[in-house]
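With this grant's support, we have paired protein sequences with backbone structure tokens. One protein thus recorded is set out beneath this paragraph:

_____
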Amino acid sequence: MAAIYSLFIINKSGGLIFYKDYGSAGRMDTNDSLRLASLWHSMHAISQQLSPTTGCSGIELLQADTFDLHCFQSLTVSQTTQRKGKKQYGTKIFVVCEPSTLHMEGLLKVIYELYTDYVLKNPFYEMEMPIRCELFDVNLSQAIQKDRVPLLGR
């Protein structure tokens, strides 16, 4: 069993639209979480440009001694980018968790499905704005519990 420390959702412009802290050590204030989201968005974009292979979608896993950072990035295809043959990436979801946590890719995809179902389909949600949706919060908590990932500091 492994623990999730925090969850971030970043819009395609690099703005933090959702942050949930699950009891990580050294809790971050709002400014720190905004800074971290912006930094990750920038590092992700730079990694795409520095990659020696074409078609790199950015960093998916960052491993450190005390945590792992898993990232899922949605693919958005507009008619303009489709005609040009380019991929355009959109929302990024990343989880900071204990090192060597398994099955995080599956959990990130479930979180993205919840995001599309409860946030994007919400008629009152404005695109690119912070997420304030009770149904998303409730279903997110259930999904994390269902995957038997214990949360710290609940």
User: Anything to note?
Assistant: The helical segments are 30-50, 79-84, 104-120, 134-146. The first strand starts at residue 4 and ends at 10.
